[in-house]
Amino acid sequence: LSLLFQIHLDLNRLHNRSNKLYKELSSGKRINRPSDDPFGALQAASLTTHGRQLEQFMRNIDTARIQLYATDNALMQAVNNVTEARTTLLTAVSVVGDDKNHGVMADTIAQLKEQMFSLANSRVGDNFIFGGFQNTRTPYTKDPVTSLVSYRGDQGTMK
Description:
This protein is mainly alpha-helical. The chain is about 65% helix and about 5% strand.
């Protein structure tokens, strides 16, 4: 009777083990419940957390690249505008011309000034690039009467 009981226990253990292996094979997971392997479950949870952190870091890197590209582009356009304004001003000062030529040059300077104002309010998506931490509102405004430009951002810098 004892031998028969032992055989029955061994068959039960083999059956349970085969069921567990079948579950592992069908799910593709070695740990289906924390009780299957407590230490392994802890490691898996830690790896999942690290994986999520890495995914967030990658999103942050992508956002930073987009911000840097947009900032670089806006600054390059601003340098081009300043260079063009300088050239136009030097031409206006050094060349004797009629009022029509000077009027055209003044219009060019006015257009460049408007472009600079627009560049100062550049944005990526819904966020303004040059507003510091106040990046959800227009950083530069222009008084409609005096045309004076005011800065409404702050001194915050993105790092």
